[in-house]
Amino acid sequence: MGCICSKGATITKNRGKEKESKKASSKRYIASSKREEVVVEVDNGANDATTRLISTENAEKSAGSTPPSRDEGNKQPAVLENSVVPQIPGRDTNGGGMSGGQPQMSRIFSVRNGVDGAQAVAGWPSWLTAVAGEAIKGWIPRKADSFEKLDKIGQGTYSSVYRARDLETGKIVALKKVRFVNMDPESVRFMAREILILRRLDHPNVMKLEGLVTSRVSCNLYLVFEYMEHDLAGLVASPKIKFTEPQIKCYMQQLLRGLEHCHSRGVMHRDIKGSNLLIDNDGNLKIGDFGLATFFRANQKQPLTSRVVTLWYRPPELLLGATDYGPAVDLWSSGCILAELFAGKPIMPGRTEVEQLHKIFKLCGSPSEEYWKRSKLPHATVFKPQHPYKHAVAETFKDFPPSALTLLDSLLAFEPECRGSTTSALQSEFFTTKPPPCEPSSLPKYPPSKEFDAKIRDEEARRQKAVGNKGVGLESYRKGSKESKAVPAPDANAELPASIQKWQAQSNAKSNSEKYNSEEDGGSGFPIEPSGVSLNKGRLVQNGISRSSLNMDVNEAGAHISWSRSGAESRMQRSNKPQGAAAQLSRFSNSVAARGSSRFDLSREDSAHSQWMDERLNAKYDTVSSQHLLGGTSSSHKKDEKAVTGGYVPKNSRIHYSGPLLPPGGNIEEMLKEHEKQIQQAVRKARIDKHKNTKTYADNGQTESLLQYVGNGR
Ligand SMILES: Nc1ncnc2c1ncn2[C@@H]1O[C@H](COP(=O)(O)OP(=O)(O)OP(=O)(O)O)[C@@H](O)[C@H]1O
């Protein structure tokens, strides 16, 4: 792959050799700096990825001299060396797509801008080097045409994931194509954080970033990962799979070991859920998707966003608005996974933050009076239940083995300090009592069962049912039917416009593969299997929408709903305007963590969020007429239409709230009742609007499902 360290590339630094090289290749050029001359050899075409970038730091190290300081290093010219890419029959040494006999061009230039310039020379696009220099430091990009894209295997909110063949090694890999909005520097920076974090981690239970694919002229970036056949959400959702205790122990052990490594490297994942736990055919589990992960420090001064972790797996401190939290958030999510593996389905599928907290109280009990007194969490006064809830874990899960319940109790402790650590969890008697965890290699070989596949299956089942006019699968899910297992968790940021794209992209239930779409790929030039069927982008898949929350924003007058947006989030929204009902319905889907505030507001993690919370607390939901919940279209709302369809709403004219809030002292049950009423009214309004505007909108499937779901009095 592109990682120099992994290839042990050599360095051209010796002047004698340099002369030799000059003889051997007239294309070589010497770029000089005050300190020394360095050899630069670049081909100027599509094959630029074959140049190797060796940062001065590495060069110095390899040369046995003292490495310069980081700052110095950045000022030094980097050394580029012709790559030693193995020859593949029929391909040129550069492994690129120029093997068709096209001449290779070279040009002469000097590297004037230190590492930045060298990175450009190495083939990195300027939009990337400008803001993500640190993340790509020491690496060179792979060329898109050194991979054969096979089929689409996953769809995240910010990415599409493809199975592909590495044409240089023959290995099957996963390519995660990151979606950028107009090359917005903040979204690039966000992705850079994911790359930096992935490069910091190295553990058998953590997905390894094997390389990056882009080119100087590309607008795309692909992250290359080892290919994993399954994810845990898909396996849990499969009606045919029921895990045994040794198997559950095996998965949990791997999860906790991977997390232990992350936490020991100062990284918290912040989005542990089944679909982010990838499993290969040898039973190895690897934690993936570090898109919401962040570095943490013991005495962290900088507040963090509480809008992370997919709702069903989100710990109470985040629901209560904590901005000073730690790796214990991942332990809570792991507790949810542990129970899910035994129960065969997610244990707390809340639709709103309010409902989620209510489910937590009902299962784990509400904390003591003492806790509420000392809690300084922004929402503590609002969400404190009037009557205490008793702890009901053992009662709810009476079939679980006792040692599992002990571990579960600790992981699902309301107060993060009581959850222990990954290390203490790994030492728990759950792993030492019989039966012991099985070996990963002894786990069954499952048929393909990604959450993505489950969604497709579920969608198909829903369609079938809809045809028979029998209501949605979610109903049967609630009754615990097998089919219903195939309902995935909402995404950690389902409210974002990208989620609309996500549902759109998933809409073709029949095909996992995708035709080469030059527009989408920005002409990246992946060879693609001819059998691919293009996705029907005109329809939306409903899945998840019906179980997501009402997390809406109203403008100051309470006259209209807009999405919760700040900073770059708004920018993203502007450039991804979901229209009409899609925009309206998307507001129902923002049940969970907003990557926006972290993904696109990195630098402000997360003062914007604190403000959001403050605003939220000031919001008076009863000023919002239900007819506004789905963004009415009457003329009086015209001025807010921009907000509804994705226009920027100045921060000071937005009020945000997540589900109805009562003033302090309110009762959570009443809140929930009122909440349901609001949803139903909104849906009735949507039904009317839908009939009026059916032809206008492209998301009928989604509207339909929401109506079916909530129409039953849900
Ligand atoms: N290495 C891999 N091998 C196989 N499939 C993968 C791999 N990485 C990701 N996937 C699939 O692609 C899906 C989306 O990937 P990922 O979660 O990294 O993207 P994301 O945009 O961050 O997603 P999300 O919005 O769910 O957080 C995963 O749920 C998984 O099914």
UniProtKB/TrEMBL annotation:
User: Which species does this protein come from?
Assistant: Cinchona calisaya
Query: What's the protein called, per UniProt?
Result: Protein kinase domain-containing protein
PANTHER family xref list: CELL DIVISION PROTEIN KINASE, OS11G0242500 PROTEIN
Going by the entry's taxonomy, the superkingdom of the source organism is recorded as Eukaryota
Q: Where is the composition biased (Basic and acidic residues)?
A: 448-463, 476-485
- GO MF entries: ATP binding; protein serine/threonine kinase activity
Protein family: Belongs to the protein kinase superfamily. CMGC Ser/Thr protein kinase family. CDC2/CDKX subfamily.
Q: Where does the Protein kinase domain start and stop, copy by copy?
A: 147-431
Sorted keywords for this record are: ATP-binding, Kinase, Nucleotide-binding, Serine/threonine-protein kinase, Transferase
